[in-house]
């Protein structure tokens, strides 16, 4: 991980160490962003860009496409931010919803155009080509099944098993309690099992 | 999930309370099997390597775009 991106990943930890309330600070940032304060929006971007990128990358499996779609996600967020109202869900959860919609539209368009990009293996992700071939089919079917999950379940599965956050961290990202996250995870795994058998 | 009556002497509930003989109880095996099945599903989801992050060029260029935002902006890759 690069120095710049690791600074972004660690930003929430630093907030905690300074003793500030991250939710209150974030609320102030998006209230300023609603008033078209670009520096406040840039701060929100710094905080969440890596998470948004990794979420999209998992869905599209291509670094360049993931960067383009991350840019689109933040553009859409900027355009729609005055419609964003905090309803208990953290800002990043709203961003991830936009990211998912952007990625799904992209995948749908790619499928309609009948390209084979779906099956291209990212060599930077898999070292051994034989191992990559073996894993790619299974990974692809799981990825597609995850795309079919309801929004909340999909977020929990990606955050828990793809990003390897613990239950407490997932709860903070999606704005739910730890027991609620456990229930969502259990149901999501059950649905995934059904989807993968179908 | 199957519910079966268990007949044996000294039949205890999960909480340790003595239960009447023949009380239907969830067969523990079914729950364990289901749980193991879900663990297998979870194990098939592979984590993303930590080095899957946007490039420094993208991060810097896009931040610059954000600071110049009015209406929209092009993707930093296209810029």
Structure classification of chain A:
mainly alpha
Query: How is the main sheet of chain A built?
Result: none
Round the Cα radius of gyration of chain A to an integer and report it.
17 Å
Number of DSSP strands of chain A?
0
Order of helices and strands of chain B: EEHH
- Sequence stretches where pLDDT stays below 50 over 5 or more residues of chain A: 9-17, 116-121
Instruction: Enumerate the spans of chain B where pLDDT stays under 50 for 5 or more consecutive residues.
Output: none
What does this structure look like?
The complex is a heterodimer of chains A (198) and B (79). Chain A is mostly helical and 198 residues long. Chain A contains 10 helices and no strands. Chain A is globular, with a radius of gyration of 17 Å. Chain A starts with a helix and ends with a helix. Chain B contains 2 helices and 2 strands; from the N terminus they run E-E-H-H. The N and C termini of chain B lie far apart (57 Å). Chain B is mainly alpha-helical and 79 residues long.
Short synopsis of the structure:
The complex is a heterodimer of chains A (198) and B (79). Chain A is built from ten helices and no strands. Chain A is mainly alpha-helical and 198 residues long.
List the main descriptive attributes of the protein structure presented here:
heterodimer, A: 198 residues, mainly alpha, 10 helices, 76% helix, globular, B: 79 residues, two-stranded antiparallel sheet, 2 helices, 37% helix, 8% strand
Blueprint (SSEs and pairs):
The complex is a heterodimer of chains A (198) and B (79).
Chain A: H1 3-9, H2 11-17, H3 22-34, H4 38-60, H5 63-80, H6 91-112, H7 129-148, H8 151-162, H9 167-174, H10 178-197
Helix pairs in contact in A: 3-4, 4-5, 4-6, 5-6, 8-10, 9-10
Chain B: E1 3-5, E2 24-26, H1 28-44, H2 56-67
């Amino acid at each position: 991980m690069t120095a710049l991106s690791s600074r972004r990943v660690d930003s929430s930890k630093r907030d905690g160490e300074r003793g500030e309330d991250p939710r209150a600070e974030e609320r102030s940032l998006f209230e300023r962003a609603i008033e078209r304060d670009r520096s406040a929006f840039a701060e929100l971007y710094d905080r969440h860009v890596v998470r948004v990128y990794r979420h999209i990358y998992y869905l599209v499996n291509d670094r360049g496409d993931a960067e383009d779609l991350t840019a689109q996600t933040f553009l859409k967020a900027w355009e729609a931010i005055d419609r964003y109202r905090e309803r208990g869900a953290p800002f990043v959860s709203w961003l991830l919803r936009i990211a998912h919609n952007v990625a799904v539209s992209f995948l749908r368009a790619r499928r309609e155009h009948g390209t084979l990009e779906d099956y291209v293996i990212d060599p930077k992700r898999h070292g051994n080509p034989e191992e990559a071939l073996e894993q790619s089919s299974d990974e692809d079917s799981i990825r597609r099944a995850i795309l079919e999950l309801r929004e909340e379940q999909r977020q929990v599965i990606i955050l828990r098993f793809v990003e390897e956050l613990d239950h407490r961290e997932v709860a903070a990202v999606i704005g739910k309690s730890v027991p609620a996250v456990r229930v969502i995870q259990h149901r999501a795994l059950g649905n995934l099992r059904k989807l993968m058998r179908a | 999930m199957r519910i079966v009556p268990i007949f044996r002497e000294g039949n205890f509930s999960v909480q340790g309370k003595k239960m009447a003989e023949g009380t239907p109880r969830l067969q523990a095996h079914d729950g364990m099997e289901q749980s193991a099945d879900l663990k297998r599903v979870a194990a098939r989801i592979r984590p993303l390597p930590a080095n899957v992050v946007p490039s420094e060029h993208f991060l810097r260029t896009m931040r610059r775009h954000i600071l110049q935002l009015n209406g929209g902006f092009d993707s930093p890759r296209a810029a």
